[in-house]
Inverse folding.
């Protein structure tokens, strides 16, 4: 998926096949020739004959409102923003062993330092690191265990 973000930087983010399928099905609901998320109003009420007539993409406010409604419906119990998704995406990639340089590219950071500050070490990542250290070094000669 191609995204233009902060600083008008292009970003290409790989999406799972299942997500691409869902997005294609969603697109079929409005068939806009250029926009995946056109500003057509609720239930595409501004579309004519099933084809979107929007000239602009869905607003940031609409996306944030949808996120708020989803987390409310899920009874998530925590405040979640679109930016939370960005943090979660990066954190899950890190925990899955994806390299920092790849995550840097996906986030659109010019500097690896920015990526390192942006990401936080989670309990899972720390536990995984400890497991890997144990696997790599095993028992040292002369240890009691």
């Amino acid at each position: 998926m191609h995204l233009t973000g902060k600083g008008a930087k292009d970003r290409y983010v790989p999406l799972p096949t299942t997500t691409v399928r869902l997005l294609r099905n969603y697109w079929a609901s409005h068939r806009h020739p250029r926009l995946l998320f056109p500003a057509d109003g609720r239930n595409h009420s501004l579309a004519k004959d099933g084809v979107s007539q929007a000239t602009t993409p869905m607003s940031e406010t609409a996306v944030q409102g949808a996120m708020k409604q989803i987390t409310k419906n899920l009874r998530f119990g925590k405040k979640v923003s679109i930016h939370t998704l960005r943090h979660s995406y990066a954190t899950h990639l890190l925990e899955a062993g994806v390299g920092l340089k790849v995550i840097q590219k996906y986030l659109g950071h010019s500097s690896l330092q920015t990526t390192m500050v942006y990401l936080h070490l989670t309990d899972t990542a720390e536990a995984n690191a400890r497991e890997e250290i144990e696997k790599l070094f095993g028992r040292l000669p002369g240890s009691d265990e």
In short: The longest helix spans residues 123-137.
